[in-house]
Design goal:
11 strands, 123 residues, mainly beta, four-stranded antiparallel sheet, seven-stranded mixed sheet
């Protein structure tokens, strides 16, 4: 069973940027829809972005225009570039492979949940 590994989280000031990475051994990310999710303190996990196997991208409104999901097939890695970070972006970020198509925005049913990476936006 696949398990993804997330990295790149850090403490950053408001307005700053981070790039998160997601990879997995023995699993070709390019064949699957890939999603980024986050769980803020005291809140439910939410899906924030999805990259389809045909490279279409989808974002929830709260991150649209600030976050960019992408994939490097040669490195078997999916990225989440996060710009103009806000305190409300604080949380643990996860990647996983949604079992439903990205355009449904129904991403929480997904495979491969890893340990996540902590992003803290604070001055």
């Amino acid at each position: 069973q696949v398990q993804f590994v997330e990295s790149g989280g850090a403490l950053v000031q408001p307005g700053g940027s981070l790039r998160l990475s997601c990879t997995a051994s023995g699993f070709r990310l390019s064949y699957y829809n890939m999603g980024w999710f986050r769980q803020a303190p005291g809140k439910e996990r939410e899906g924030i972005s999805c990259l389809s196997f045909s490279d279409d991208t989808y974002y929830v409104d709260s991150v649209k225009g600030r976050f960019t999901i992408s994939r490097d097939n040669a490195k078997n890695t999916v990225y989440l570039q996060m710009n103009d970070l806000k305190p409300e972006d604080t949380g643990v970020y996860y990647c996983a492979a949604p079992t439903k198509l990205c355009y449904t925005f129904d991403w929480l049913t997904a495979d491969g949940w890893g340990q996540g990476t902590q992003v803290t936006v604070s001055s």
